[in-house]
Design a protein that fits this description.
This protein is mostly helical. It contains three helices and no strands.
Length: 79
Amino acid sequence: MTAREALLPDVAELGDVRIERATGLHGAIARGSVLVGAPLGGVLVATLGSTTALWIDAVSFMVSAIVIRALVPPLRPHA
């Protein structure tokens, strides 16, 4: 079990989402990212070169971190 899967029940509860729906969304997003991400990475490397593709990847991770930091509320400690 990955850390992402271990946190899924807490995240679903925090968002007032049924665990079945959260699990389904998690699976769909994971499969969709594999389906789209690998070919997109190949196209970027083929058209822009490996160095530029890696820089684009790094920038996308930074943008993701900023969005998560801005939009995800901090977890409440268990009482």
